[in-house]
Amino acid sequence: MADQFTIRRATESDAENIYNIHIAAIRSKCSTHYSAKDVDIWVARQDKARYLPFIQASEILVAEGEEGKILGFGHLTRDAKETDGKTMQIRGLFVDPDCGVKGVGSTLLKELEKKAKELGEVDSMVVHSSLNAVEFYKKYGFIAQEITTHQMCEQSSLQCHKMIKKF
């Protein structure tokens, strides 16, 4: 069903749609594995302007459906913790829970992988997956490494799975 949407680089005018998808996906999908308090804190940390530097750096891809509707987004950047520069990090992959189009997340993931490989010298991708998305990443060859904690504030932290895929 990939013909129902296209993948393209995000533009600054997409920031509000990316934000809305991010919030909706956290509330809808992540709430199955995290407390209401943690979800509320996670959502409160989001800000439309925070996506702009990543959009300007061409790090965010969007899936665009009919009539220009943004259905999902993926964010890929160099892994700041890897000093050799050979690992790319997926910083986010979220799909509008109401989009009704199948294959958006998997197509975005494949495009992020393609983008990583095109950079050359890259030999792996890492993601700190939310608990609800672990099986999704496993389906595409990511291997769970360890449980990590993402500290959101003094009162809240999220458990994640660090997952890696070698090329």
UniProtKB/TrEMBL annotation:
Designated name of the protein: N-acetyltransferase domain-containing protein
Gene3D superfamilies: 3.40.630.30
Keywords: Acyltransferase, Transferase
Superkingdom, taxonomy of origin: Eukaryota
Matches recorded under CDD domains: NAT_SF (cd04301)
N-acetyltransferase domain mapped to chain residues: 5-165
Xref: PANTHER family: AMINOALKYLPHOSPHONATE N-ACETYLTRANSFERASE-RELATED, AMINOALKYLPHOSPHONATE N-ACETYLTRANSFERASE-RELATED-RELATED
Coiled coil ranges: none
Listed SUPFAM superfamilies: Acyl-CoA N-acyltransferases (Nat)
